[in-house]
Amino acid sequence: xxxxxVMPALEMAQETGKLLAWRKKEGEPVVKxxxxxxxxxxxxxxxxxxxxxxxxxxxxxxxxxxxxVGQTIAWIVAPGEKPPADSAATVNARxxxxxxxxxSSPSASASSSGAAAEKPGGSGPVSPKARRIAKExxxxxxxxxxxxxxxxxxxxxxxxxxxxVTSVTATPHSATAAPPPTAESHSQTASPPPAAExxxxxxxxxAIARLMAxxxxxxxxxxxxxxLVRDIDATALNAARQWFGPAIERDxxxxxxxxDLLVAIVARVLAKHPKMNASWTGDxxxxxxxxxxxxAMAVKDGVVGAxxxxxGALALGEITILRRDxxxxxxxxxxxxxxVSGGTFTISNLGMYGIDAFSAIITQPQAAVLAVGRISDRxxxxxxxxxxxxxxxxxxxxxxxxVDGAQAAEFLHELAGALEAPQNWIG
Length: 427
Description:
Chloramphenicol Acetyltransferase, CATH 2.40.50.100
């Protein structure tokens, strides 16, 4: 019996998935559980396993296609069996959006995209993501044709129309030609500088880069940020790494980092300051019982927040193992949706890049993010005399809808004390 391979829903708000690559060729045998294909969502790249034993057949979607959730993309059949005769009909031409954009001139692209946008399509259902993007980009949904299941208007549909409108408005309009300049006018008027030549069409953003751009813009424009800065004497923090590190590396096989110490300490201090671990729901504040620490990690096309759940209840060695695993999979593009979901507080550490201090943008609906700079020797007062100490600057960005200045200051004050005496917080 033929078994369909469909585009899965890997996230709650996911509408489509991009097929990156097939691990098997059509006609090759597959074994249940072995890697079959790679899918990219808004957040992560996921390796999907074969749902059954058999032969891969009837491949409908190929690498580069963006396919609606639930759409059949191939079949697994028994040896000698053919895929269902109507399998080709399961692909609606309006339901599969090819990622590659037309390579024609901007004006031609704009005219073809604009023509499609002019056709009314507001009668179909509209996804929440599409409504949000339409509001942000000023797109009239009645002008959008839905390409999702049942004619649903998706985020990709709205972005396509928004891009087309941008392209059209950017095209120079014709104007009445001025008379040719005379020789006298040449001598009196400086020639305008030549227009900068384009090196080619703008590069399309990946799903991760586009999502990051959308969410940081949304957070920065909607969440009332305020910032608190504190300098920390990292002497004891360095000592804690030297003290705990060898045992963790011997027993766990991974190296302890300053980020691991920060995750452990921040999670424990958050337990005493629940407002800093809360979330903004749009019109209310939601309390979170667990401190799920999101660690900002650089990936190929941007930054993702990989989550260490219930960090306050984990031993330092357990945090180190989880952080290392998340780091390795983030670099390889193998994070799963649960790895980037449910964070309640974010830590962004740029100290390894030699950054002294910076301010980070809050990841909504979280209430705060801690930006961590490098540890460097500075001359500071020590018992009334100048001395050299390893210092670190931390900056707390907070959402004023959730916490006020005094609450954030109390948290940062206690966190500073914990970082300067980590032995009192982790054992």
